[in-house]
């Protein structure tokens, strides 16, 4: 961790502990080095730092490209390993940067649902994360965040002091689907992307049941 990341990591951990009384489950399931995709449900702006602060390694985050145009904000985001993506959260440029970070042995947080939930429930997975998984060789760690919708859902202006949790699941490797994707026809390839995304969301749902 560089100094800026360490300061942010320490500050968020203090806030999560004091204001939200956070709990972290099974961080030991996440490799301490090497490429890894952290695939989490998404209920709040609290989710990215919550998932990252539960781990003793630095993480790469996605941030809207327009935010990097502000000199001060852009500098901080870069120091926090943020990857600029377009409004839809992807695009060819964003995908290339994500894969580059993974190729260099980094960890990155992705949200299969694509956007924050409007009602606190899990949403269907989009195929974009499946494409990223298939084009990389990184293991996928399903992650379940809990309580963040009640603490700071998209309908709230001010965070509330509710307990929040983060639970890390067991690695998913997708060896068979990655091998099939190398030679299969394009229609099947699209099916594989969605299948991977659906399997990840199913694991997240199982973590929800365990955490609940």
Name its key features:
212 residues; alpha/beta; Glycerol-3-phosphate (1)-acyltransferase; five-stranded mixed β-sheet; two-stranded parallel sheet; 8 helices; 15% strand
The tally of beta strands, per DSSP, is 7
Structural class: alpha/beta
* Rounded radius of gyration (Å): 17 Å
Order of helices and strands: HEEHEHEHEHEHEHH
CATH H level: which superfamily?
Glycerol-3-phosphate (1)-acyltransferase
Low-confidence stretches: none
| Name given to the CATH architecture | 3-Layer(aba) Sandwich
Question: Largest sheet, if any?
Answer: 5 strands, mixed
Q: Shape, please?
A: globular
Q: Could you please describe the fold and organization of this structure?
A:
- The chain is α/β, with parallel strands linked by helices and 212 residues long.
- It has one domain: Glycerol-3-phosphate (1)-acyltransferase (3-Layer(aba) Sandwich).
- Helix content is 43%, strand content 15%.
- It has eight helices and seven strands; from the N terminus they run αββαβαβαβαβαβαα.
- It has helices at residues 3-18, 47-53, 71-79, 91-103, 128-135, 148-152, 175-181, 186-211, and strands spanning 23-25, 36-40, 61-64, 82-85, 107-110, 140-146, 165-168.
- The strands form two sheets. It has a five-stranded mixed sheet, sandwiched between helices.
- Helix 1 (3-18) packs across helix 2 and helix 5 (128-135) crosses helix 8 (186-211).
- The protein is globular, with a radius of gyration of 17 Å.
- The two termini are 32 Å apart.
- 35% of the residues are buried.
- The model has no long low-confidence stretch (mean pLDDT 92).
């Amino acid at each position: 961790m560089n100094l800026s990341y360490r300061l942010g990591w320490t500050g968020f951990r203090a806030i999560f502990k004091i204001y939200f009384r956070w709990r972290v489950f099974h961080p030991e399931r996440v490799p301490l080095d090497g490429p890894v995709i952290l695939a989490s449900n998404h209920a709040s702006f609290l989710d990215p730092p919550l998932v990252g602060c539960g781990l003793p390694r630095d993480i790469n985050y996605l941030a809207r490209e327009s935010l990097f145009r502000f000199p001060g904000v852009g500098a901080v985001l870069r120091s926090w390993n943020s990857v600029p993506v377009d409004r839809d959260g992807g695009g060819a440029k964003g995908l290339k940067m994500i894969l580059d970070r993974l190729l260099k042995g980094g960890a990155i947080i992705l949200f299969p649902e694509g956007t924050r939930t409007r009602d606190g429930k899990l949403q269907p997975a989009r195929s974009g994360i499946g494409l990223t998984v298939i084009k990389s060789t990184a293991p996928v760690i399903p992650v379940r965040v809990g309580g963040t919708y009640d603490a700071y859902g998209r309908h709230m202006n001010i965070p509330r002091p509710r307990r929040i949790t983060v639970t890390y699941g067991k690695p998913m490797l997708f060896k068979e689907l990655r091998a099939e994707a190398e030679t299969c026809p394009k229609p099947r390839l699209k099916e594989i992307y969605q299948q991977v995304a659906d399997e990840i969301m199913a694991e997240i749902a199982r973590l929800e049941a365990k955490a609940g």
